[in-house]
Amino acid sequence: MSDNTSENPENQPNSAEKPVTPPGVSAPVAAAPWEREVLEKLVFAALNEQKAARRWGIFFKAITVVLVVVALSAYLDLGWTGSDGEALGRHTALIEIEGAIESEGSGSAAVVIPALNKAFSDSGSVAVVMHINSPGGSPVQAGMIVDEMHRLRKGYPGKPLYVVVDEICASGCYYIAAGADRIYVNKASIVGSIGVLMDGFGFSGIMDKVGVERRLLTAGENKGFMDPFSPLSDKHKQYAQSMLNEIHQQFIQVVREGRGKRLKESPEMFSGLFWTGAKSIDMGLADAFGTVDSVARDVIKAEDIIDYTQHEGLPERVLKKFGAALGAGAMKASMERVQPALR
Asked: 237-247, pLDDT tens digit by residue?
C-alpha cells in the first residue's frame, strides 16, 4: 500500500504560507482589514494636518511681514507726496478736514498743521485748498490752525490759501475758514454759527428727590466748578459766562481780520445763527460758489490735485478695529471736565 502523503503534494505543508515560529516566540497576529483601514486614515489625517499647519504658518508669516512693512511706511511717512516739487509737477495742494475740530482726527492741529507745512513747502504746489466739512469744535485747535495759516501765508506770499466748504462750515470750522484768502461754498451749504457754548447736565435736583448725598471734598473753593452733581452757584455761572464772552470776542476778531471789508456786519452776524451758502456770500462771510475741482481748474489754473491730508496710520486703524480706541475714548470722556466749544 503506497504512502499518499508523500505522493500528494496537496497534503504537504507550504513553508512560504506558514512560516515557522521559533520556540518561545508568540506568533504575530494578523491585523483585520478594518484595523488597517483605520490606521491608514489616521496616518493620512496626521500628514494632512501637518501640511495644513505648515501652509498656515507660511501664510501668517507672510501677513506679519506685510503688516510690518506697511506699519514702518506709515510711521516713517513714506508716500507719494513730499517736498520734491519737480517729481510732483505743477499742482493744486489739497487738505481735507472732515468731522469735529478736536484734538484727535482730521480736524486736529496735530494733523492739519503738518499737512499745511508740506503743502506750502512743496515747490510744485501753486496754491493750497482746504476742503472742509465740520460743525465746529475746540477753539484751541481752531486757533492753533489759524495761527499756522497766517504764518504760512506770510512766509509764502505767492501761494494763495483757499477754503472750499462742503455740507457745513459752522462755528470752529468757520473760525479756521476765516483765515483763508477766499472761501468758496455751495448755495445750500451751512455757514456761520459764530458763537461759543459750554454745555453739560446737572443732577442735583434728582439726587435730592431720591435721597442721594453728594460728598465732594476740595482744596480750593472753586475746584468743584461745573461739577454736574453739585448746584451751580451764581458766582460760577458769571465766571463761566465771562470766559465764554472772552472766547467769543477772540472768534469775532479772527473773522473781522480775515474777512476785512468784505464783511457786511449786522446785529445777527455774531449771534450764533447760521445761513445758507448763498446768503453767506451776500453777507460777506463767503466769496463765491465753487468746488475743489472748479477752484483748481478755473481759479488756480492747476487741474492736477495732490492730497496732502495726513491720513490715519495703520496702527491707529488696527487699535480702533479691536476696540482699544473706544476704551481710551470712554476713559477720556469720563475724566475730562466740560470745556468751551465752538459749535
From this structure: 788 888 888 98
